[in-house]
Design goal:
By secondary structure, this protein is an alpha+beta fold. It folds into two domains: about 5-205, Glutamine Phosphoribosylpyrophosphate, subunit 1, domain 1 (4-Layer Sandwich), CATH 3.60.20; about 215-350 and about 420-490, HUPs (Rossmann fold, 3-Layer(aba) Sandwich), CATH 3.40.50.620. Helix content is about 35%, strand content about 15%. The protein has helices at about 95-100, 105-110, 150-160, 215-235, 250-260, 280-290, 305-315, 325-330, 365-370, 370-375, 385-400, 405-425, 440-450, 460-470, 485-510, and strands at about 35-40, 50-55, 55-60, 65-70, 75-85, 115-120, 125-130, 135-140, 145-150, 185-190, 195, 200-205, 245, 270, 295-300, 340, 435. The radius of gyration is 23 Å and the shape is globular. The N and C termini lie far apart (about 55 Å).
């Protein structure tokens, strides 16, 4: 270790309570693929790697986490965490060349053409991927600063006071509204925020740009070229690369399927089996792959393990309740046999995802009365802190609105993706393959939002599928094949989840005497 950082203490034997091994002798995975960036004196586990990033800051990370180092044109060292790919070429060295010819003041133009799940640490600032899928939690104290992808790790190291006691459930606004977290002294970086280490300032990053092209076929062609570059880079990233696509009856996974087929990228497909799987998800994926001879499997998992469920909740600090929690608890991911799991989130930004749900609201109204937004999600038993989180987000957006985009699209990016989906992706750091959403790029978001101004909500993706896999046109997307009884059971299950979640939080508030959102 560098002698200039002698105040960092390495304690291999005394650190197990705070810094358990990434994989302990009992096989328990803790803080897998997580990192900590800090200038504080801390016990560091022996198996974690240490990198100096400058300005008295050191990066400590799990050895399973991918970290690359680059040099810019001024000779400064940059660190790239996670998996990043360029949309404008399929050369794996392109990112290195872009940084080598750039400096920190041009960082926003560099990352616009990157996709994947990544974090870039330049000599003085930190920037996330387009939707903050590799999230950054920030804990500032008087004499130190800590930044980490793991809320659980920051909690273990500093035990910050809990402020938002709302319990996340299956329904409604089922994440903590960014930039707030459930801890009083920890915040999370929004996608268009750059964090400057020396000054501890958050600066607006003007990263979303809408193209001048409006023709649907031209936009589709640009997206296809970009995604083709991306999936080919993924395939070339390692020898005998195994790519598995998570395929359902839906539009988004079919769009990625069409891209992978068109790019001639070797891959297989799988569908997760669960007790409530629809008849469409049982039939349509196999109908799709039969057209092209692509291997497909249903993955059912094994018996439920409470130990695995607790492991999942500890890793995420109970910030997400989703289907992947069920799959992990049943060991479903263990049989994937993949290096990369291609998932199909983020496409909805081009389908006006929240436009109807939030119709009639504006940012100023949300800032003044945040409960109005939360009620649109059928979430009523909220804490005052949840409302303050929404208010803080609205305040940021009012100050830094991007004229090119509707505020509801930014809400989708900042909350649904950087809040909800980011927590899910962090949970999947527990599994062997790297989870990738190929469309997570400012470049693609610009095209998708532009297309949504002139096209039907699904128009651009249907155009992509028609160009890449025209023989799939007769296979319906998400057809309703379930009978009345099955639909009734599914509806009853949703109502039960809503009631259970709301009742849980209501009782918790009554018992604790915690205040509801202010209506003043």
């Amino acid at each position: 270790m560098n002698s200039q950082h002698s105040n960092i203490v390495v304690m291999q034997n005394k650190s197990t309570n705070i810094w358990p091994s990434s994989i302990s002798t009992e096989g328990e995975v803790r803080y897998r693929r997580q990192f900590l960036l800090t200038d504080a004196e801390l016990p560091i586990p022996a198996e974690w790697k240490t990198l100096e990033v400058g300005r008295g800051m050191y990066l400590y990370h799990c050895p399973d986490l991918k970290v690359c180092q680059f040099i810019d044109k001024l000779g400064n060292q940059w660190h790239l965490i996670g998996h990043a790919y360029s949309v404008i070429g399929n050369d794996s060295e392109l990112l290195a060349r872009e940084i080598a010819t750039s400096a920190e003041d041009s960082i926003h133009t560099i990352v616009r053409n990157w996709t994947g799940r990544w974090l870039l640490i330049s000599p003085n600032s930190i920037v996330t991927d387009a939707a903050g899928l590799l999230g950054v939690f920030i804990l500032e104290q008087e004499k130190s600063i800590m930044l980490s992808s793991s809320l659980a790790l920051l909690k273990a190291l500093r035990n910050p006071p809990l402020s938002d006691t709302r319990v996340i459930s299956w329904h409604g606004f089922n994440w903590y509204p960014l930039p707030a977290t459930k801890y009083q002294s920890i915040r999370k970086l929004l996608p268009d925020q750059a964090y400057f280490l020396s000054s501890r300032r958050i600066v607006f990053l003007d990263r979303l740009e809408l193209p001048s092209i409006t023709n649907t076929k031209e936009i589709a062609a640009c997206i296809i070229r970009g995604l083709t570059n991306v999936v080919r880079q993924i395939h070339r990233s390692r020898n005998d690369c195994r790519i598995v696509l998570s395929l359902t009856a839906g539009l988004d996974s079919r769009t990625n399927y069409a891209i992978l087929r068109s790019a001639c990228t070797p891959f297989s497909a799988m569908t997760m089996w669960h007790p409530r799987i629809s008849l469409a998800d049982r039939c349509i994926p196999e109908a799709i792959v039969e057209r092209h001879g692509i291997q497909h499997r249903f993955i059912k998992g094994s018996a439920y393990s409470d130990a695995r469920r607790q492991q999942y909740d500890q890793h995420t600090d109970a910030t997400v309740i989703d289907g992947d929690r069920y799959f992990y608890s049943h060991g479903a991911f263990e049989s994937l046999g993949a290096d990369y799991l291609v998932r199909s989130g983020c496409w909805e930004i081009g389908r006006k995802y929240f436009h109807r749900q939030l119709a009639g609201l504006d940012l100023q109204e949300i800032h003044d009365r945040p409960e109005k937004l939360l009620k649109r999600f059928r979430t009523y038993c909220n804490t005052r802190e949840s409302g303050l989180g929404v208010r803080n987000w609205a305040a940021w957006r009012l100050q830094h609105m991007q004229p090119a985009a509707d505020w509801r699209d930014l809400f989708y990016r900042d909350q649904r993706l950087a809040g909800w989906l980011s927590s899910i992706e962090q949970s999947l750091d527990l599994i062997a393959p790297a989870s990738i959403h190929p469309v997570n790029s400012d470049y693609f978001y610009g095209f998708l939002i532009r297309a949504s101004e002139h096209e039907a909500e699904t128009g651009i993706q249907e155009a992509i599928i028609d160009l890449c896999a025209p023989d799939l046109g007769d296979i319906p997307i998400n057809p309703d094949l379930d009978g009345t009884l099955r639909r009734t059971r599914a509806f009853a299950s949703r109502v039960s989840a809503i009631f259970t979640g709301e009742l849980h939080n209501l009782v918790k508030q009554v018992v604790s005497g915690q205040r509801h959102i202010s209506h003043e």
